[in-house]
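Re: weekly structure request thread

Next one in the queue (375 aa):
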Amino acid sequence: MKRWSKISSIFAVSITILVLYLVSNSGIYHSANTVFAQSSSLTIISLSSDNKLISGGQFTITPNPFTGIGNYTIKDNSADDTEKDKDGVITLSGIKNGNYNIIQTGITSGYSVDQIQKTIQVNNSSGVTTFTDLPTNDATASSTSARSVTYTTKFECGSIYAGEGPLRPGHYDTDISLFNKQKFQTQVLWNTVLNNGPSSNAILLKMNAETSKSITCQDIRTALGNNNENFIEGFTIINVPLDSTFNEGTTMTSSSSNDINVLDVQAFYTANALDTLPHEVIVDKISFYIIQDGSGKIPVNMMQKTLDISVPSGLNQISDTEKKVKDALAKQYTLSDDDLTKIVIRIKDVSVGVGVLIDDHAISLSTVKPELGSQ
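Done, posted below.
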């Protein structure tokens, strides 16, 4: 008996080790399975221009990834860095899900910090972002490497009638609004790229301090040389050069995220999406009496009195007015076909109502984020 107990214990331990091995080496552990899911983490990598890891990086993260409020500062190989054995790689584990803004504030001697703020989203996953640091003697090149700020937005213009694409039939319009929030004049170049079609030439906009302009579907059609009402879609690219000469003596070389957002750019979309385009609807107003109800389902107070109902009607179409009324009664009082045969009605009058427009508007607003460019 003792021997059998010993064998059972060894077998149980072996099974436990096997299960742990399979769990730790299977895709289940790394999947979204809530039982074995890893906690959220954030990794920050510091690289040289030739993709070599650089130690000594220091960063400020907003908000604090552990508390969700305030700022948090982390340095390469410090206490909270779970990658202490790897210079140039900082990993924070067990953080909260959220969007984080990261700024590099320090790097090892001989290199200049990457001045571009990075934004990263962490949602039950491992977020990774990279900072590139140039040698100190290339610091000037680093600060001026971003030569423009670009805003790219989608446009939808024109009418879809049926079966012409993924959008429902209807009218679509786009209005892109630009606000120059600077205290000086800013010059903007914009062009448009048509889906499966040509690109327009660049168009210059001069925007005085704290003024706004818009780019409409009409402007987009004019730029493309497309003045018909056919449906078009594509992208509008808005470019703000950071060159001091182009901006009439104003130097804009800072690359922080707050400074690069030279404009406020918002795209306003409207859609009248219907199964058919908006159209006039003729309505028949039918006055009638209920003379007899053999079903017993219609309230007594509805009997022998003038009632009316409005129903849509088509041009040049012959219809059964009595049937329209009975169909409405059947729907309201849950009448069967047999019940309807026991109901007697009399039509008093039919008049044509005023035509109305069926309308189904949808609107949305999108704020366009800036991106640094090298051109």
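The CA atoms of residues 39 and 138 lie 39 Å apart. The radius of gyration is 34 Å.
Next request, please.
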